[in-house]
Design goal:
The protein has 15 helices and 7 strands. It has 352 residues and is an alpha+beta fold. Helix 2 (84-94) packs antiparallel against helix 3 and helix 7 (180-191) runs antiparallel to helix 8.
């Protein structure tokens, strides 16, 4: 390979890895800037972001080529003109080092006339990292802080390209906290999205809220609408099926709930541990409602033994195990589960 081609290959790789902030691909008599890196659910694109808002993200790839990406598919944009400290914080967050990312944000120094989009990037990344840390701890106070941050971002930046992620995340946080009234305006915003996938995710969040309110009829309608849709997002369909299992269990159709639970768990990929945990908890509820306590214990033990790295699901399983072990006369095992709740999550049985 001649020196000219080696240089171009080096520039491409350094740019894609985020090592070179501005890379230049040299042609005959012209230069094309490879400035920004856009990571989305389908891969990564390098070019110049010429539009990034709630409707679309447009990347100019040079030579008259443009690529349009739906904003709800965006995972991260590394802008060439953002401070290197912000870029480093973004990369840390992408690698799951959320505390490091937050510490890095504190080192970002901006001039008074800084581009407002840089402050928006900082605000979103802070809310994102706080959310991930809160989910990992299942701590109610941390979840409340994350919900406040993500809601504030969504309200302050209604046209930002991360608005759909922020809105859905904030809604789910409020539902987790049992404050579904706070989620209602967020549902309305999601329903305005022009993409069926986002609208269905709004229905999923609303269905979960209806479950929390014990409005089982409305929850079932919302879950059924997702299951009847022609969307190919299997993860979304599995989540709706898990919601339906809970509805069936709570409305006297426990045997039907058990059948659906077993079918759904077979269909969920093993690597989707959060959905596996949700599925086994829903199946445990179905067995409880059917009066099959030993089977319920086994379902919850699946979560305790295999999915304890999904805190929200682990807490639910432990709380049920405390109750069920006590009901079948296994007091020591009930106390063991209660001890994990106290020491690992700062919870006492009953969720207090």
């Amino acid at each position: 390979m001649d020196g000219y081609r080696k240089c171009r290959v080096w520039v491409r790789w350094k740019c894609l890895l985020g090592i070179v902030p501005v890379a230049m691909a040299w042609g005959l008599g012209e230069a094309v800037a490879w400035a920004d890196i856009v990571r989305h659910t389908g891969g990564s694109i390098t070019g110049k972001v010429v539009q990034a808002d709630a409707n679309q993200v447009v990347v100019d790839r040079g030579q008259g080529r443009q690529e349009v990406i739906e904003p709800h598919r965006i995972e991260m944009i590394l802008f060439d003109d953002e401070p290197s400290t912000l870029r480093t914080a973004k990369m840390a967050a992408a690698a799951g080092r959320f505390e490091e990312a937050l510490a890095g944000l504190e080192r970002v120094q901006l001039p008074e006339n800084a581009d407002p989009k840089i402050n928006q990037e900082i605000d979103f990344l802070r809310a994102f990292c706080r959310t991930r840390l809160a989910e990992a701890s299942a701590n109610p106070a941390a979840l409340k802080e994350a919900a406040d941050l993500m809601t504030a971002f969504a309200r302050a930046n209604p046209n930002h390209y991360r608005i759909w992620y922020a809105t859905e995340t904030a809604a789910n946080l409020w539902i987790t906290l049992g404050q579904d009234k706070e989620a209602e305006p967020l549902f309305a915003r999601l329903a305005e999205a022009p993409w069926p996938e986002v609208q269905l995710r709004a229905r999923l969040a609303m269905g979960r809220a209806m479950l929390a309110r014990k409005n089982f009829a409305e929850a079932e309608k919302l879950f059924d609408a997702i299951l009847a849709s022609d969307q190919k997002d299997e993860r979304l369909r599995h989540a709706a099926a898990i919601g339906k299992i809970r509805v069936l269990a709570e409305t006297g159709r426990a045997e039907e709930a058990i059948r659906l639970g077993e079918e759904t768990l077979k269909a969920i990929p093993a690597e989707q541990v959060d959905l596996q945990g949700q599925g086994y908890n829903a199946l445990g509820l179905a067995y409880q409602k059917a009066g099959q306590l030993k089977q319920a214990i086994l379902a919850y033990l699946h979560v305790d033994l295999l999915y304890s790295n999904v805190p929200a699901q682990h807490v639910e399983a432990l709380e049920n195990l405390v109750e069920l072990f006590a009901r079948v006369g296994q007091r020591e095992r009930a106390e063991e589960a209660a001890k994990v709740l106290r020491e690992r999550y700062g919870r006492s049985p009953g969720g207090s």
